[in-house]
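Colleagues,

For the teaching module next term, I've prepared a clean inverse folding example: a structure given as tokens, and then the sequence designed for it. I'd like students to try predicting residues themselves before seeing the answer, so please don't circulate the second half yet.
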């Protein structure tokens, strides 16, 4: 049986739309509405955030609020590393997906020798860099930072000295670079990405499983295929961005995209993954209740969270 620890990161400074910092509270309210005492059961740690930066002028247009993201990455990585070293299984609830670079750094700090696989359930690849970003929002960059990629061959921006240094710091957080090899990443339900990201996926031959494939082959087969593909990895991190769900249900997130997964498909997929002993950390991110009606997105996220944790407890 695994000891679960909840790590709450209500930080949204990496996102372009406001409101994701309220996602964790929305998930807790969903739990109350379902009369669940889930949040009473587990030790939890709330990470101090830098959301005051949302009220301050942007320093770098190509890496917005990067100093705050670096501070967050450091705090999150420490919390995740300490949890793993203390024999806890960290379940991270985070505002925006830029926080994932901290989670990944934390796993590697705790297990520097591990060959880490990443299952990235997301409509987006998050493979932009300050050199290629169309928006400057860092939640579009955590995967690139984790595989240590600049993608300079597709560069559209010249970086100033400060942005360059901060990006190097982000890639090297925990003094481990790269943290994940591109061939150890699997994207599920990826469907909205730019040519710069496509270039990296093709250059590294990164694995992509489409919504159609999940629907055609079913969660169990897809899960088996993914775990077989990552069979060389010693540890696997599952990151679930709620925008992987179809936009008909995922209104409560900053960047909804059509042709996504159904609630049941995500639930079945993640539940199957959680049965595998190599899974060492699970993250849910990008719930934004300000964009939602009736707190639907948070309710779906809570159902997935609860089912996943129940399976972890049984294993």
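(Answer key — instructors only)
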């Amino acid at each position: 049986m695994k000891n679960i620890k909840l790590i709450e990161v209500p930080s949204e400074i990496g996102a372009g739309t406001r409101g994701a910092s309220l996602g964790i509270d929305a998930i807790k309210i969903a739990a109350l509405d379902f009369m669940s005492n889930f949040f009473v059961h587990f030790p939890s740690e709330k990470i101090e955030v830098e959301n005051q930066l949302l009220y301050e002028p942007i320093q770098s247009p190509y890496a917005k609020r990067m100093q705050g993201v670096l501070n967050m990455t450091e705090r999150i990585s420490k919390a995740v590393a300490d949890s793993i070293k203390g024999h806890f299984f960290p379940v991270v609830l985070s505002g925006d997906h830029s926080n994932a670079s901290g989670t990944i750094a934390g796993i590697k700090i705790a297990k520097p020798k591990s060959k880490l696989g990443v299952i990235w359930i997301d409509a987006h690849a998050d493979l932009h860099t300050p050199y290629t970003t169309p928006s400057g929002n860092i939640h579009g960059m955590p995967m690139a930072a984790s595989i240590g990629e600049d993608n300079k061959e597709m560069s559209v921006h010249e970086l100033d000295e400060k942005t360059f240094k901060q990006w190097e710091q982000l890639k090297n957080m925990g003094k481990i670079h790269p943290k994940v090899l591109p061939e150890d990443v699997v994207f599920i339900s990826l469907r909205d990405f730019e040519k710069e990201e496509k270039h990296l996926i093709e250059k590294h031959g990164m694995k992509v499983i489409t919504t159609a494939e999940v629907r055609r082959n079913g969660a169990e087969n897809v899960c088996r295929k993914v775990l077989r593909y990552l069979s060389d990895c010693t540890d696997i991190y599952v990151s679930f961005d709620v925008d992987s769900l179809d936009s008909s249900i995922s209104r409560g997130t900053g960047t909804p995209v059509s042709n996504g997964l159904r609630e049941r498909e995500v639930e079945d997929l993640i539940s199957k993954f959680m049965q595998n002993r190599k899974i060492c950390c699970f993250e849910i991110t990008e719930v934004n209740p300000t964009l939602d009606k009736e707190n639907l997105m948070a309710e779906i996220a809570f159902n997935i969270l609860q089912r996943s944790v129940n399976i972890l407890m049984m294993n």
